[in-house]
Design a protein that fits this description.
heterodimer, A: mainly alpha, 12 helices, B: alpha+beta, Periplasmic binding protein-like II, MetI-like fold, nine-stranded antiparallel beta sheet, five-stranded antiparallel beta sheet
Chain lengths: 314, 537
């Protein structure tokens, strides 16, 4: 569970908004003996679970600096450690790793900027205007989102293929088409998320601006926009990460090596020649994983609490 | 906090906002003009090619965008133009299209609309009996345009260009250079004569596909020496809705039951075209044992996979959340951060790393199992162990998420309940089962259901682990032991050995959707989420 799980965390916040945040002091009336045993258990669990969670990571780091293909019983730091795999990775004309990385960054960046822009205007309208059909429109957007986007992958494939015959920029095997598809899959949940945050900005601001004769656009641009920048940044980053990590739709919609995103490229790279490419793949996997891991680590508090708290204050 | 004045401000834009918006009005109209002219061009093209659904889609989208941008009463919707267009085009339309194709024969061999199919068939040509044969010489302009010098058996010479009628060469045509001994000019104004070497290098790639002259008299190059006058082979008659073969005289009436032009003896012209076949795809699924067998097998595994994934990740995540819910345990924050890494990584990369570790030849897990146990299972070849491997990988990918949400939910359980329980003499174990778990489930229940539907369609882990392999033997279409429904539809659509069958694949998609939708309705209905969400609007 990677990209699709991101929105779910926001759903979580809806459930929890009413409950109080109180840490439970569990160390009430236990004896020192009990406490010591519990501490021992905690340490044991920690060792085991850290091993389970991190062993694959350690192993891939080790494999990436191991120039030989004997990886079954390698030491963590191979005796002949080198950056040979990284060199091979960057100089393989058949597998243009840099190009894939660039494609991924490009697609993810454009998607996230467009998503933030389009969603921001929509969320503002839903939050600030009262008009007929507003409620049903909002609920419709939520309902459409129930249909998992992966289910339409065959339709999207056929749709883009037809479009491509007239308009190759948005057809199959094009980044334009892929970006539009990604925009569609994230739109609904992002609108809800941002609208929730917009709702927390006091309306007094709009009203005093209106008294001063500001148009809606002026109000939005010079007063609201600076206030909602944090949520825009978070939505943008999340859109970037989930797009960067996405695999299946890119696999279905992209066909040629030069168009691949990093995930598709890495997958096909290792799928074709499992044993031989392993060290090189390890190097690529590391480089590919580092950005999103860093972003998640930095944003984990936002993701878990900060953002969702903003989204639910009614 | 719903401000009344904002509502009042609605329908009555002040004079100030009207005047300041004049330049923007012009800008808006210009943008709409560009969008509209482009859309009209697209709609015209789609209608011309018989792509009615696409034409309708573009029409509806364009009309909506125009209406909300021109009528002042739709002002709020104007802000949503972008979102509305994207949702219509890339979310709603694919859903409708999925449903529509489930009731058609859309597949390889039936990719085109009837109009397109007729046009494609019409491109076939043949050499009629007594057709004229020419010897030819090719000339090429610097721009790469070709010109043929043709001479027939009677000694007449013609000039032929693509798309223009044949021109008889008479003495007074200007621009001819010196004639060689064969009576062919060595150069024609603006064109250079091609030598044999040049011709051989471009004969198949460039010259042979060209059609010289004007329909129905088409001249094509047939060999290095010979060009011939060809005739369109198939003739479509709209009235009888049939195609006649001019070469053999056989009539192929359109058979709208099969989506082919078929002769009386059953011979069909390729390509066929799309037709709606009602419930045909669903009937195939239910009636053909070779299709039904793997479907049921895959269906059961899909449910098992989703349930085991949710339960295992939830159990481990909850356990860890309980362990680290102890404020006196120092370093728990850094440990939690480290434990999130599997979840923070791109899923595909995580799965591929596990694939390497489980690999029989060099994988660290497989090798150590052989060393210490003297045995290692077929993680990718054995049906059962492949499933175990997938569940293991999915546990690794998913437990951090469950840990995060469980930690959050635990914080929300009030402490006094535990104190009361302790007074009543409850053990920790009882407190967990009677208090913690029920209260926790109330909070994270909807998320567990969402996680179930997510895993129900967790294509990434299935595909990246082993692409659904190992294969189930003796099935009508390829299917694997670890395939779930969504990866099975992917195979039907893109990997079937007998050609893609999009219609059938989408019929299965509908089945998946019905299952997912009923689970989601349950989720909203019985968990009271819908009411909560609706209030929040």
């Amino acid at each position: 569970m990677s990209e699709q799980a991101v929105p779910k965390r926001n759903g979580f916040a809806w459930r929890l908004r009413a409950t109080s945040v109180r840490a439970r002091a569990s160390e009430g009336r236990s004896t020192p003996e009990q406490r010591r045993r519990r501490r021992l258990g905690q340490i044991l669990v920690t060792i085991l679970v850290l091993f389970f969670a991190l062993f694959p990571i350690v192993w891939i780091i080790s494999a990436s600096i191991n120039p030989t293909s004997n990886m079954a019983n390698q030491a963590f730091i191979p005796p002949n450690a080198s950056v040979a795999n990284f060199n091979d990775l960057l100089n393989d004309p058949l597998h243009p790793f840099f190009l894939w990385m660039w494609n991924s960054v490009k697609v993810a960046a454009i998607t996230s900027v467009l998503a933030v822009f389009v969603t921001m205007l929509t969320a503002y309208a839903f939050s600030r205007f009262r008009f007929r059909g507003r409620r049903s429109l909002l609920l419709t957007i939520l309902l459409i989102q129930v249909f998992p986007n992966l289910l339409t992958m065959v339709a999207l494939f056929l749709f883009l293929r037809q479009i491509g015959e007239y308009f190759p920029t948005f057809g199959l095997d094009s980044h334009g088409g892929l970006i539009m598809v990604y925009l569609g899959t994230q739109m609904g949940i992002n609108i809800w998320l941002m609208k929730g945050y917009f709702d927390t900005i006091p309306r007094d601001i709009d009203e005093s601006a209106a008294v001063d004769g500001a148009s809606h656009w002026q109000t939005f641009w010079s007063l609201i926009f600076p206030l909602v920048r944090p949520v825009l940044a978070v939505v943008g980053v999340l859109a970037f990460v989930s797009t960067f990590n996405e695999f299946i739709l890119a696999r279905v919609l992209l066909r040629s090596t030069e168009q691949f995103t990093l995930m598709v490229g890495l997958y096909l790279f290792i799928d074709q020649n499992f044993g031989q490419n392993w060290g090189v793949f390890a190097a690529g996997a590391l480089i590919g994983a580092v950005p999103t891991v860093i972003i998640y680590t930095i944003l984990q508090d936002y993701i878990v609490s900060g953002l969702t708290a903003g989204a639910v204050k009614g | 906090m719903k401000g009344k004045s904002t509502e009042a401000r609605e329908g009555k834009p002040s004079l100030a906002s009207l005047t300041s918006s004049l330049p923007r009005l012009a800008l808006r109209l210009a943008a709409l003009g560009i969008i509209d002219s482009f859309s009209i061009l697209l709609i015209y093209t789609f209608i011309h090619d018989g792509l009615w659904p696409l034409a309708a889609l573009i029409t509806v989208t364009t009309v909506i965008v125009n209406v909300i941008n021109l009528w002042e009463r739709f002002y709020p919707l104007r802000w949503m133009s972008g979102a509305v267009a994207i949702i219509l085009l890339f979310v709603l339309y694919p859903i409708i299209f999925t449903v529509y194709t489930a009731f058609t024969n859309y597949s390889d061999g039936h990719l085109l609309t009837k109009v397109q199919s007729i046009r494609r068939i019409g491109q076939d040509t043949f050499l009629p009996e007594g057709g004229v044969v020419y010897s030819w010489t090719a000339f090429r302009s610097p721009e790469g345009e070709f010109l043929l010098w043709l001479s027939d058996a009677e000694g007449n010479a013609y000039l032929a260009r693509p798309g223009e009628p044949l021109a008889l060469v008479t003495a007074d045509i200007p621009g001819m250079g010196v004639f060689d001994e064969g009576g062919v000019p060595t150069a024609i104004e603006g064109y250079a004569r091609l030598g044999l070497v040049d011709i051989l290098s471009i004969l198949d790639s460039e010259l042979a596909p060209l059609e010289f002259g004007e329909p129905p008299l088409i001249i094509k190059i047939r060999s290095v020496r010979e060009a011939a006058q060809l005739q369109q082979r198939y003739d479509y008659d709209e009235e009888s809705d049939a195609i006649t073969d001019r070469l053999t005289g056989i009539v192929y009436p359109a058979n709208n039951q099969t989506g082919f032009f078929e002769s009386a003896d059953g011979a069909a012209l390729n390509p066929g075209y799309q037709i709606t076949i009602g419930l045909g795809n669903f009937e195939r699924l239910l009636s053909s044992p070779a299709l039904r067998g793997p479907f049921i097998q895959i269906f059961i595994w899909t449910i098992v996979f989703a349930i085991v994934s949710v339960v295992s990740t939830f159990a481990l995540g909850l356990f860890l959340a309980l362990v680290y819910n102890d404020p006196t345990f120092r370093g728990r924050k850094i440990i939690r951060t480290l434990l999130i890494i599997p979840y923070a990584m791109p899923g595909v990369i995580g799965i591929l790393i596990w694939r390497g570790m489980l690999n029989q030849h060099f994988g660290v897990i497989a090798a150590n199992m052989v060393t210490f146990l003297g045995w290692s299972p077929g993680w990718f070849t054995d049906p059962i162990w492949s499933k175990v491997g997938i569940l293991l990988v999915n546990l690794w990918l998913g437990f951090p998420y469950m840990m995060l949400i469980c930690s959050g939910a635990l914080q929300g359980i009030p402490t006094d309940i535990y104190e009361a329980a302790e007074v009543d003499g409850a053990t920790r174990w009882q407190a967990f089962w009677r208090i913690t778990l029920p209260l926790l489930l109330v909070a994270v229940g909807p998320l567990l259901i969402a996680s179930f539907t997510f895993n129900f369609n967790n294509f990434t882990v299935i595909y990246a682990y082993n692409e659904g392999r190992p294969p189930i033997p003796d099935t009508a279409t390829p299917a694997g032991y670890t395939d779930i429904l969504i990866s099975y539809t992917f195979r039907l659509a893109f990997e079937s050995g007998r050609g893609a069958d999009y219609g059938y694949a989408n019929a299965i998609t509908i089945v998946i959707f019905l299952i997912v939708a009923s689970i989601t309705i349950f989720q909203y209905r019985f968990m009271g989420m819908w009411e909560e969400v609706s209030e929040n609007v």
